[in-house]
Every structure is written in C-alpha cells, then in structure tokens.
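Lecture notes, unit on protein representations.

Consider one protein chain, 132 amino acids long.
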Amino acid sequence: MERDKRDYKPYTVKWIGDNNEVENWLVDGTQWDMTVMMARDKADGRSIEIWTRVDGEEVELMLNEPNSQRREELASLDKLVDRIMDNAKAMVDDYTKNPSDASGEVDVKRGLVKGDGIEIDLDKWEDEEDKE
C-alpha cells in the first residue's frame, strides 16, 4: 500500500461555528484520511479547516469545508462577484465603443483629484437636514 504524501504531517484542525467561535486541535503522526475522518466526525455542523503546521505556524490550508450557512454566504458572494464582473466588462465594452476625451488622475497619498469629469471637493454632503 502506497502512503499518501500528506500522511504523518503536523496539522491544525479548526472547527468554526456560526458565530466564528473556533476550536483547534493539533494533530501529529496520523494518516491524512484518518485526520479528515476524525475532523468530520467532530464537526457537528461547524465549518472545518485543516492547516499544515511548520514550527507551530499555520502555513497552508489543506482542506476547507464550510458548513451549510457559510456555503450559502459564499454562494451569495459568488453571485455578487459575478454581477460586479459583468458590470466591469460592460463598462470596458462601452468605453471601447464610445471612447472619451476626458482624462484625469487621482493622487491617493496626497488626497488630490484633477482632470475632466466629476469634481470631488465636499467636506460634507448636503442633505435635507442641512437645508432647514
């Protein structure tokens, strides 16, 4: 029987609850399959992460199994990322088809904006309360 290259390595198993409470378990000298099986048995509805350990530091995430609530959150984030990417692609396509002569630049370090287009120079936004 051939050994898995992940066997008999030091790992940190983390169980993460819905409120981000974390339980850690340090594992040394066990087969990888057995480590995963024990982690799943003890998960009790929590997310599972298994990390490699080198000199006590968590180095590489080897297994990430989100619980059902986290899976739903990740799915909604994926949909949001897809919408953002679609909008970004549409903006690039629109600019390619309708180029602009306007130009400008932003100096983030000094907080300066110059060029054509929108001028940003408000210390506070005007709203209904300010008009009274």
